[in-house]
């Protein structure tokens, strides 16, 4: 029994250490704004807003309808961020994600780079596109499909 305790203690220390080493979020919903109310409605989205949206999608247990509201594919596309969250690829303590430039903006389309890292693997960079639909910036379905292919998830890309 003492040996099991030592193994558990070692794992716990490793998890706590990894959590401290992970980058912190650069943007989060405002303190008075719940995840249910999160929306990017600015004329041109900022990297911080896009980063907060990606974190909401892959690093939180937000309800499906909240995640669907952030995706061009809506309910059909929720399976992707749900699976990424369950696998824990890009959230503490095993990993992180961060949206960075370079960015492009053209009317109702905006692009930036999603950098995603998981422990023991190189950082993945995916050029992602967001589309402004009904006044809200949503992650484009083609970006989810690129992510599925890059990560190698067994999900058909049929939500475009």
TrEMBL record:
The keyword Signal applies. Residues 44-153 form the Low molecular weight antigen MTB12-like C-terminal domain. InterPro entries: Mtb12-like_C. Keywords: Signal. Pfam families: Mtb12_C. Belongs to the MTB12 family. This is Low molecular weight antigen MTB12-like C-terminal domain-containing protein. It comes from Mycolicibacterium hassiacum (strain DSM 44199 / CIP 105218 / JCM 12690 / 3849).
